[in-house]
Amino acid sequence: MGNMYYVMILLLIGAILLSAVLSVSIGQVSIPFKQSMDILLNVITNGKVGSLDHIQNESYHNIILQVRMPRVIFALLIGMGLALCGVVMQAIVQNPLADPYILGISSGATLGATFAILVGFGGSALLSQFGVAFGAFTGAMLTSMAVLLLSSIGGKATSIKLVLSGVVIGALCSSFSSLLIFFAKNTDAIKAVTFWSMGSLASASWDKTPILTIVVVLGSALFLFQHRILNTMLLGDESAITLGINLSVYRKLYMVLTSLIAGTMVAYAGMIGFVGLIIPHITRGIFGADHKRLMLGTLLLGALFMIWADILSRTLIDNIELPIGIITSVIGSPLFIYMIVKKGYNFGG
Amino acid sequence: MELLAKDMAVKIGKKEIVKNASVHVKKRQFVGLIGPNGCGKSTLLKSIYKSLTPQQGTVFLDDLDVLKSSEKKVSQRLGVVGQFNEMHFDLTVHQMVMLGRTPHKGMLESDTQKDYEIVEEALARTNLLHYKERSYLSLSGGEKQRVILARTIAQQPQFMILDEPTNHLDIRYQIEILSCVKDLNIGVLAALHDLEMAAHYCDYLYAIKDGEIHAHGVPEEVLTPEIIEDLYQIKCQTFTNPVTKGLSFAYGF
């Protein structure tokens, strides 16, 4: 199993790189794979490798670097982030059904985004520039802090208290969102809310990548080293204490960190369902539930999955870009069903 | 290692579960807690291993103040085999036992050859060597409990607390688990239900009733018909088992 693990990891990294190059080649303007590769190599190595001589069209360079590249990076980071938050959330609440949005993040972000779209933040130039992203992020953070506070009342934040607090606060936020929509007159804005809730990578651009990169990469690096604590989380509070780890403390800490990551992702890409739920499960099916191996596998598989979801969302229907949230669910569910049927995977339990 | 828990009092909600109980386990002693269901055995144990915070009392492992020390520090010395617990995610037996090394590891430290050897030895002691790659959740209750014991052994504790470790186990696993613990030759405090087992394995017994220490002493002093009736409201007679020469009980007479 030891060597298999490293082979699988290398295969995944290879697949991600190939898929990334493929992804920048595909689109309304189709660019030959070889030329995309050369352009990318040329940029990465600063001209030392990858000749630009045979590039057929000047615009290829721009299309790849300005339009498609940021998008691939977005897909990669968001895939990593969602899978990471999913695997951590599942450990925090000791429940295989958890996803990055379970603890009120989704409904909070939706409420924030709905508010931003339907009501707006008034005349403040800075706020309206970020508008929806700001609303979603703030909503996500506020609700997850509320969930954390509510679950800490009366001592330890147990996993059940967290889930119940998440459900209650989520329901509250959803009803406020519904209220806003109910009184809204502007049908375009209502459509915008619906569209936002389906998730999209269309807003990807270079100026947004730094923040997302920092948040996701730092978060991933940090959690890669938390495997011991994540593993004891699977055992529950009682056993964890006897192994020297007070889960209540780590649950709160991890929740703050994951909601920061999830909040940032929601702000940039809206709600992309299913990835955070199924990628950890699929990875457990391959590498097992030990977080020492699970973490890296999940991050890579999440990235790969998202790059392909993005490719499909752009190419399935000519000239129309489908919301990526629809794609992730449509390819995710059959994959999951296949896994249950084929491997007898029993949800890690 | 010596354990001294003094004047422990634990309240859950408004109910006093443990009232002023003191327990002393001397070096390498195997000490049993007996008493009816709900008498406060588990609660007392939990307050000793920091899962519950007692309202009053002190716990010392040699000169380590357990209640004031970090969980990590305590877990480097004290191992706990609890009642059977549920899990929603699956690990292999080897991974499960490896978790026993957690207290000795820093955040960035990886598992060394030494850790693997310790785990191997723990698996050998519990007869689990050929179970290594099996999935934990696919095991029977008795096998699972052995894995938990192996994990606790891998923790290399100098003292062990057992909370009804043989609940729901058949007689073979009961004997296997208790013998294995006895062979470790470290201080042990164990809540037990089976009085014959308690008489056989324990050097000293504490009988608990309504959260208080009702009687304590060597098994022959504690396991008398009178005390047993006080504890369990059942008549019984004790006799020396002709086969084992150990203390035996005939209930209902």
From TrEMBL, chain A:
It is a multi-pass membrane protein. It comes from the Bacteria. Gene3D superfamilies: ABC transporter involved in vitamin B12 uptake, BtuC. Keywords: Cell membrane, Membrane, Transmembrane, Transmembrane helix, Transport. The chain crosses the membrane at residues 72-93, 100-121, 127-150, 162-184, 204-225, 253-282, 294-312, 324-341. It is found in: Cell membrane. It comes from Lysinibacillus piscis. Pfam families: FecCD. The keyword DNA-binding does not apply. This is ABC transporter. The keyword Membrane applies. The lineage of its organism: Bacteria, Bacillati, Bacillota, Bacilli, Bacillales. Its main location: membrane. Belongs to the binding-protein-dependent transport system permease family. FecCD subfamily.
Automatic annotation (TrEMBL), chain B:
Residues 3-235 form the ABC transporter domain. Pfam families: ABC_tran. InterPro entries: AAA+_ATPase, ABC_transporter-like_ATP-bd, ABC_transporter-like_CS, P-loop_NTPase. PANTHER family: ABC TRANSPORTER ATP-BINDING PROTEIN, HEMIN IMPORT ATP-BINDING PROTEIN HMUV. This is ABC transporter. SMART domains: AAA. Keywords: ATP-binding, Nucleotide-binding.
